[in-house]
Predict the structure.
Amino acid sequence: MQERPLRTTVIGSYPFPGWLEFAVSHLDEFGLADRAELQEDAVIAAVHDQVAAGLDVISDGEQTRLDFNLSFYGFLEGIHLESAPPRRFGPPAHDQRGKHQVTGELRAPRGLGVVEEFQRLQRLAPRTADGKSPTLKASVPGPYTMSGRLLPNEQYVDRWALTEALLPIVRTELEALVTAGCTEITVDEPSMSCYAHREDPARFVDIWNRTVQPIVGKCRLSTHLCFGNFKARAVGLRHYAPMFPAFLDFDLDEIHVEMASREFAEIGIIRDIAERRDVAVGIIDVKSYYIETPQDVAERVRLCLRHAPAEKLSFAPDCGLSQTARWAAKQKLNNMVVGVQIVRDELGV
Ligand SMILES: [Zn+2]
């Protein structure tokens, strides 16, 4: 059970400040200490925007996943990092990201870096005396999603084999996060939601449950089921029907679904989720530059309340905000919190 009804939360990522993007393309001109400083400064900026919005749950905005060396793939041994995408020009889409060659046994002796990210967030996030400090959330990609950017080879013959190799690596990172004091973890498996229509959803449930098994009941555990947002473009069939009821067997506390950009199609699914789990509803469209007003948000919250009770509901953007300009991301988060508060006041919760 979540700690307050109608909680406001986020999906992990937040836009990089312009200066950070500039710095990333000139990283070789920075010294190690300079890089550490710019990573901290970027997290401070992301934390500031989320705290200023008044969110109940915040993340580090994934600000330190700057480049390949600091991404999860940079922590993996047994791969050859391939940063050149197969298509470099033309309209933005997911094929403008490269896939990595697997050259040996997949291992991550240093972990995936999420524990260090969480500890940095702990150090930089504000603690308020009134006990209302925001909850700090960490996001980890699930093994099936991570496997999508690795090319199968003789040792790992297909995506399922790659997933099985990554599964214990992700599981170890999750356990380490809980040990480090992390109380809220999202395991992102957008590839499962994107491909549920063409794969066996029960197979996804089995992968999920084996991945998270050691941390179930030891933290607030959630997943984010979206249809893709790289370069603000979707990639999956944007229907939840193929995933349910199978995905209700995921061992977790909360399922996040993308509703705003889909005009709340299949809203009834949140009733089914709320019968078994908490449900986080995406009520902010991260792909659109229309800024939802607080009244828009309040209306969307009331719509959700027709399908699920307040104590089961939380609200978030549809996806991480990394592909949305920061000026818009800020306004959208601010208005989301104000809009949810309108309904809290109406209900007296
Ligand atoms: Zn997403």
